[in-house]
Amino acid sequence: MIRLAVPAALLCGLLALIAFLVEPQSDAGAILGPVAQETSKIDSANDRQLVVALVSGDRQKRNAAARALAEWLAAQEIVADVQAGPEAPSAAFLDWVWERRFHLSPPTQDDLSTESLSARLIEARRSLSRGAGMLVGDRLLRDPTGSFARIIDRLGAARTGLSQAGGIWQSQNDTAAIVFVTLGDRPFRMAETTGLSERIRARAGALGVESYLLGPRIIAAEISAQTSRAARFAALLATALLLAWLAWILRSGRSLVSTFLPLALGVATATVVVQLAFGSVHVVALGFGGALTGLALDYPLHLLSHGHEQRRQTERLVLLGAVTTAVGFLALFGSGVPALMQTGLFVATGLAAAAIASRFIVPSTGKALRAPPIERMVWYLPYKAWIEVCVIVAGIAVIASAPAGSIRTLFEPPGQVDAVIAKFAEMLPLPSGQHVLTVEAENLDELLERQAALRPTLDAAIRQGLLGRYGMTGQFVTASKARSLSDLPSPAAFSRRAEAALRNNGMVAGFAETQTDSYRAALAALGISPDELAAFPETKIIAANLERTAVGWRERIQLFDVKAPSGLATAIRAADVAGVEIFDIRARIETALVELRKRVAKWLGVGALVAFAALTIGLADWRRAWGIARTTAAATVLTAAILVLSGGTLGVFQIVALTLIVGIGIDYGLFLSGRGNNPVDREYYRSVALCAGSTLIAFAVMGFASVRILQEVGLTVSLGVLVMVWFNLAQTRRKGTDAR
Q1: Per-residue pLDDT for 702 more than 90?
Q2: Residue 40's pLDDT is what?
Q3: Angle CA(477)–CA(478)–CA(479) in degrees, nearest 5?
Q4: Beta-carbon count within 10 A of 130 CB
Q5: Which residues of 171-210 are buried (b: 16+ CB within 10 A; e: fewer)?
Q6: Which H helix or E strand runs over 96?
Q7: Which residues pair with 709 in a beta bridge?
Q8: How does DSSP classify residue 737?
Q9: At how many degrees (to 10) do helices 679-703 and 216-250 cross?
Q10: Residue 740 to residue 738: CA distance in whole angstroms
Q11: Which of 522, 389, 388 is nearest to 112 (CA)?
C-alpha cells in the first residue's frame, strides 16, 4: 500500500497546486502570431457587442417583446448597456457636443459666408417647427455655422443604419425587432456567456417570439462549448472503455490503479512545469499535450507484462523510450510558436515523470496478462530495409505534391453559427469579417488626418457600387490640424456677418450678439480625447475599434456590404495614404497557417533526428537504432501519405499528431526489434499488443467525435498505430527464426 499511498499523496498535492496556480489561456496569437491581431480578441470593446433579433410576423408583438427583453437585460449583471431603439441624446451629451462642436466639425470659410449663414438660419427655423428641433432647442439658431447640426446628422448615420417603428429598431427585411446589447468589461467566460444566451432564448420564447443571437463572444462560446462537450464525451467514453479493457486484462484493482497513477502524475507534473515556465498554460498544450502524454500509459503496461527476469531490461527500455521521445518533442521550441513550445515542454516533462513514476509504482507481478496473441501475426517481408526506404521516398513525394492552398482553419464554428450569420445578413447590415481595412499612425491627430485623406476614396467607392457604407472615428472627429481655429474669422468679423444674415431673414439683428458669444466660446473650447468619446453611450460605438498600440494608434474601419473586394482594394491602394492597409483576413490567416505548418514540420523533423541520435547513444548499437528509425519513419510517412491522399493537405494538428506516431514507433521498436518466437519474446509481443489496444481505444473514440480537430487527431493516431504495428511485425526471415 505504501507503494501507492506516497505517489497518490503527491498527486493530490499537484492537483491542489494546479487548482491554485494554473491559469489556462486561449490567445490566438500564441498559435498564429501577429496575424491573430486581426481576429476577434473577445475582450475588446467591440467584441463585447451582442445583437438579438426577435422574429415575428406581428410587428406589435415583436416590439412588445423587445421592450420587455431590453428591460430584463438591463437588470443582468453581465450586461453593461441595452438599446432597443433610437434614444434621445442625453442632456450631458448635447452639452458636450455643443461645447466641442468646432473641434468635432470645424466650419469652413464657406460655412461662414453671409449667404451660408442665412441658409442655415432658414434650416434652423424649419427644424424648430418640427418635433425633432425641440431636441436641440435654440442651439441651431445660435450656431448658424452648421457645425452642431452636422454632428447630430453624422451621429445618426453612424449608428445602426436601421429604421425604427414604434420606437424599436426594425430589421431591414421588416421581420424582426433588433436589440443591441453591450456586455460588461469583464473577462470572457464560456459558461457565463452560454448561460446568458440560453436565458435570452428562454425569455424570448416565453414572450412568444423566435430569437437569434450574434456576437463575437456568442460565437466563441458556441465553438468552445461544442469542443468542450465533444472532448468531454470522448474522454469519458474512452476512459470507460479503457477501464473495462484494462480491468479485463489486469484482473486486479491494485494493478489498475498502478497503471493509471503514473499517467496522472505525468499530466499533473507537466501542467505545473508549463505554468511555472510560461506563466500560463495554453489550451492547445493542455488538451493536445495531455493526449500525447497518453503514451505514458504504455510504460506501466510494459512493466506489468514482463516477469521478474525481464524487469530490469524492461525498465531500461521504458526509460530509454521516454527520454528519446521527450528529446524529440523539445525540438518544438525551435518553432517559435508559444502554444507548440508549451506542448513540447508538456509532453517531454509528462513522459519523463510518468516513466520515472512507473519505475517505482508498478509492481513486478510475474503474472501472465490477457493480451491478443499478435506474435501469431508476424509476417514475412523480404528485403524489408529496401522496401521501407522506398516507402519513405514515395510517401514524401505524395506529401510534397499536396496542394498548398488547401490548408484548413484550426478551429471551425458549429454549423448552426453559419446559419445564424446567414439569417442576420438578411435582417441587418453586418460589417465584413473577411475584408479588413486598418489605419495606423503615431498619434491620434495623424490617424484622423489619414482617415480624412481616405474618406474621399471610400465615398467614391460607395457611389461606384463597390461598397455599401463604412464606419470610422474620422467621420465624427476631425484632426487637430484640420480643426485649427486660427484661420477662422475673429468674433468681431463673425458678428458683422451674422447681423447681415439675420437682416436677410427678417430677424432681429441684435441676436447676433448671442450668436457671437456662442462662437467665441466654441473657439476657446479644449480639444477632444478618445476617452471622452468612450464616456458617452451615443459615441461609444463610434470609437469601439480605436485602440492604442505599442507605437501609436490604430483603427479597424468597419466595411459594410463589400460588393467588389478587388476593385475596392485597388482604389484604396491607388489613394496611397500612409498607414492604410486593406487585406483579406482569410487569405492572411491561410498564409500564416501555411507558414506555421512548414515551421512545425521542419522542427518536428529536427526533433525526430535528435530523438534517434539519443536512441543510438542509449542503445549503443547503431544498427539496431537505424532499424528502429527506418521502420518508424516508413510507418509515419505512410500514415501521412494516406491522410494526404484521402483528405488533402495535412493540418497543423495532424502534423503534431504524427509526432505521437514517432514516439509509438520508438516504443514498439525498442520492444520488438530482433524478437523471435520463443516464450520470452512472446511477452514483448503481448506487451506491445496491450499498449496498441489501449492507444486505439482512446484515439478511435476521438475519431468519431463531432468536432473536426478531435476527428483529425483521433484518426491520425489510430491509423498510425495500425500501420506502425504492421511494419514492426514484419520480419526479413520466416517465422521460427530469431532474426528479422
Answers
A1: no
A2: 46
A3: 125
A4: 9
A5: beeebbbbbbbbbeeeebebeebbebbeebeebbeebebe
A6: helix 91-99
A7: none
A8: B
A9: 150
A10: 7
A11: 522
